Each structure stands twice: as structure tokens, then as C-alpha cells.
Amino acid sequence: MSKIRVQSTDFDISAEFSALTAGRADIGGLGCFVGTVRDSAKGRKITAMTLEHYPAMTEAAMARIAQAAEQRWELLGCTLIHRVGRLLPGDNIVLVLAASPHRQAALDATGFLIDWLKTKAPFWKKETFLDGAEEWVAANEADEAASSRWA
Amino acid sequence: MRQVKLLYFAWLRERVGVSEEDLMLPAEIGSIGALVPWLRARSPGHAAAFVATASLRCAVNQDFATPETPIAAGDEIAFFPPVTGG
After folding, report:
1. pLDDT confidence band for A1 (50 / 70 / 90)
2. CATH topology for A2-148?
3. What are the respective helix, strand and coil percentages of chain B, to the nearest 5?
4. Which residue ranges form the domains of chain B, and what is each CATH number?
5. Which one of A54, A82, A127 would you mutate to disrupt binding with B, by most B Cβ within 10 Å of its Cβ?
6. Given an 8 Å threshold on Cβ–Cβ distance, is A140 in contact with B80?
7. I want to staple A29 with a disulfide (CB 3.0 to 4.6 A). Which of A99, A103, A118, B86 is the partner?
8. Residue A25 contacts by C-beta under 8 Å, 6 or more apart in sequence?
């Protein structure tokens, strides 16, 4: 039911949308979230963002997150695609699609999936600034709070 | 003595200086909580990586672990900062 992928290349939102809905008419609502690379952080210009992950664990952790969503909401399918490697401002980072017979479940599951991806999947972001300095992104307390509201 | 594989990610990897290492653990290192101070004493790089346990996360055999998680021979033990994907 869930499609999980980690890749360095970009994803095609329209193609993923079609793949999730192809041949079925029981979906009443489809939630979509796309995370992209912002060109600044804390007032500093960013020239690149590099995503590292734990290959042996990543897809299993993402599958557990999808399973948790499927247990909480009536989902007809979901898609989680996360990019890794070096990305540029404006590039896509992550795609979440959640299909359900009903709007509220689709929207809530989408919010849940991205909140949990941010706090429970082994990815780490490093930002490269205009002056060449590189810094690992610190975990965000707001992300942790957003994740724990689904507890 | 038990052999385990240690993996490090993000700034922990940079501070330790390697992405992975195979180590023989003394018998008394039975849990993640006991492993951390033992690793900290291995080198200045390890000491820098393991300086703040509040910003330390761990997985044993690709599953999130806690200080109480026991260690067995052959385990893959990964240390990393809090995740920042999404």
C-alpha cells in the first residue's frame, strides 16, 4: 500500500500522483506535501544543502512511519520519497502523498507523515552558506513538538 | 569480548573521523549506556563526538535504541545526532 523511496534524483509529482491513483475510483481525497530547499537560514544565504542518511535503516524507518499512518487513518495508499545528496535552493527534498476515501484523513495523514519523517527517519541536513561555511542543521524543538502532537 | 560494528553519521562521523569501525567490546560493556563512556575514552575525536549525550541518538540493528538497550555480539550500533530530514 505504501511506496517508499530514497533517491538522489528529483521526483515527478504528477507521475507519483498518477501512480497512486491509477485504476481506482475509491479515493475521495489526496493529501500532498512537498518539502523544498529554502535559500536562507537564520538570515544567511544558502548555496546548497547536503542530505546524509543511514542507508541500511532509512527505508525500514520510513516503512514503519507509513504503517503507523495506516493504523491511524483509513488510507488507500501513500507515497514517501526522500532525496539524498547535494541539493540546491529551490530543489525538491521530500514528497508525501496520502490517499483516503475522505478529505480529513488524507490531510491529517499527510501532516502526520511529514511530521514523523522529520523526527523519526535517519536523515541529516548540512547547509552550505554563501561564504563556503558548512553547518549541520540542528534539530528543531518545534519539529519535535509537531511530531509529539500525534502521540 | 564481543565484536560489534559501530557506525557514525553527520557531525558525529566528522568528529570521530571515520564512518564505521569494528570493535571488540569488553564483557562489562553490556548496554548502550555503558558503551558511550567507553567510546568517549578511545580518542580525542571520540571524546568530541560523544561530549553531549543530550544530542546523541542511537540505533541497534537499524532500530532506535535507548541507554538501556543491551548489546550482543555482531550488533550494528549506529550513533548520530537528532535527525533533521523532511
Report:
1. confident
2. Aldehyde Oxidoreductase; domain 3 (3.90.1170)
3. 30, 30, 40
4. 2-80 (3.10.20.30)
5. A54
6. no
7. A103
8. none
